[in-house]
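Sample log: Two pore channel protein 2.
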Amino acid sequence: MADSRAESEPLLSRARGGSGRDCLEGSAACRSVRGGPGARSRRDLCFDQAAVFIEDAIQYRSINHRMDARSVWLYRLYYSNTCQWILSFTIFLILFLAFIETPSSLTSTADVRYRSAPWDPPCGLTESVEVLCLLVFVADVSVKSYLVGWAQFRMNLWLLAYLAVLVVSLMDWIVSLSLVCQEALDEPQDPRPGPPCPSAQPHPRWSLAVGAVRAHRHPTLLFMNLPPLRIRRLLRPFFLMQNSSMMKKTLKCIRSSLPEMASVLLLLGVHLCVFTMFGMLLFTGKEGDGQDRERLMYFRNLPEALTSLLVLLTTANNPDVMTPAYSKNRAYAIFFIVFTLIGSLFLMNLLTAIIYNQFRGYLMKSFQTSLFRRRLGARAAYEVLSSMTAEGEAHRQEVGVRPQDFLQVLQKVQLDSSHKQAIVEKVHSYGGDLLPADEFQKLFNEFDKRVIKEPPPRPEYLSPFLKSAQFVFSHRYFDYLGNLIALGNLLSISVFLVVDADVLPEDRDDFILGILNCVFILYYLLELLLKVFALGLPGYLAYSRNVFDGLLTAVLLVLEISTLAVYRFPHPGWKPEMLGLLSLWDMARLVNMLVVFRFLRTIPSVKLMAVVASTVLDLIRNMRAFGGILVVVYYVFAIMGINLFRGVIMAPGNGSLAPHNSSAPCGSFEQLEYWANNFDDFAAALITLWNVMVVNNWQVFLDAYRRYSGPWSKIYFVLWWLVSSVISVSLFLALILENFLHKWDRRSHLQSLAGDPDTTCQRSVELLFRDVLEEPAEEELMEKLSHHPHLQLCR
């Protein structure tokens, strides 16, 4: 009763002389009471509400949720690190099930010639894990629906879709379990009369490879041969999308740019059709000449001609598709050159330009939205705390927040200690004065700064010699010397790789390389000890580059000691015999690979390279949402591919239509030994999709799956090419350009930090772009707060 009453009353209400409307006395939920336990409980509720608003502002979350005491407790519990970790792990687990459940990917190879029988989990094992994940999602959508309220739930399409996906998934799970995981259709009978072939051994899933020819006469067989379709597997990526606000924004932007992309794709289709018809009319020569070879190989019929030119659009079959006709007459090259110029150089790049133009400013729009949510959450927290100040100290005319109240709320906020300490110091600088709204908002800029902890004090030595040594070994020139030694080590490895390129491992003499490795590793150890001497152990560990060097030096030292213990000290004729877990050559290779990795320490020493490296790291952080979109696309197409093409690729022999390698045409799927590129399990499907996305030799996949499963298989691969290579890659290119240009143009901000008084902070990307963002007006914030569905703002 008390909670519902607190929610129904206005949360933010206090009289503001001469502006807005005055709230009735006693209507404020956070109104202070002079004494009694009710005053304390209301004060705690206001502090909790302010803490929630601050957390929403820090995380750029929406503040449109319930704010009564029970809901605030549930909201903070839901967004706690533990609950969010459980939800993230559940999403990962349900997506990872595709590698384990039937068809399992737990084999050493995907090659159908060498692959052993995979382990299939017993019925109910993966289903039990899956239903636990679904129950977690049911609890998730239930909590979200309760927190936003029924009115908001009905208008939230993502929550409605979330509920629908869960209902369908649970129903599909019940069907699978009721059929004891045997959803496979019965093996269809060939409608043609006649005895069955005694040499044929039917695949357990009624292999499409065996029935491909019959599927041309009886198309219904093609669909009867499909493995069981489990709808819930196709819906699993939705759980990843609905949990990421950035992925939702990306999908919204993709949806808004679909009309422009569709217009270019339509123009691309017209271009393909026109040149296909023109090519079929052009290449109709007599038998035995170049035109006839061109027709027989690439323009036999309309589907083949269309496929040949579609592949040429990606330049995957250039110049093979042109060679037969070009060998007969030079003029035929004009046809293919004009097609490539219009399609590949103009239309494809035009599509990229359209996507870039549509997404130009997307990063700024995203930051602008985040800034508005930050200011709105901070303003809501300010209104809650300032209302307590106005009612607790009615004699004061000033409007603001008491610093002690804000500090008390800050202790409730989930925030790392370094940022808390920085904000506490900032608040203490105001003394006992009330914090006005603009100063209160400025406090939240501290959340965008990555606080750099001051390094621990260095050891103090009394001896002048030790002081001089400390100065030398802590100087940056000592780091430059270490970089030079690492470069020398890398060059020595490169020389030996070139010299020993044509020598078999068992014939190599690793005496000189072994000596050099010992010398370099001893120097790395000496460098580590000298830096610990100069900086002290806490000071040495305070720098990430030192931790990186120290870990690699420790690993190198362990490997070198193991090598010396097993193979003794290097000597002439040092042979890589297998005496332990690894041969000498394997251990030397591992050491050398770590040395190459250690060379990355030189990147921060070169300023321009450091800026590029930091730009790449920021791009990776900002590309997580788009990487998630790519994961979703891969997952859906992999599951579809398993359901469409599982078992169609079979090794030569055993009733397979696949020819042996010796009789296969040059450049075919069989001759190139692409047997591992199949859809027999989830991991193999992902690799196959990746190889098709790269579009190198993807015509080989089109031809093989056309022969083994029918001509309609091309639709699947062409759709995948459009989604992955055309749309997704163009989208990534546009967004990388957008991120890189903004970061590169503002690299001066990184250089200006040296003269900035806040030298103990690094600025995040949001703060670097803050100067080009538009600050929300106070009227806009107050108007948004006044329309909050679960609180009433009286002004």
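Observation: The chain has 33 helices and four strands.
Observation: Residues 1-29, 31-36, 184-226, 748-765 have pLDDT under 50 and may be disordered.
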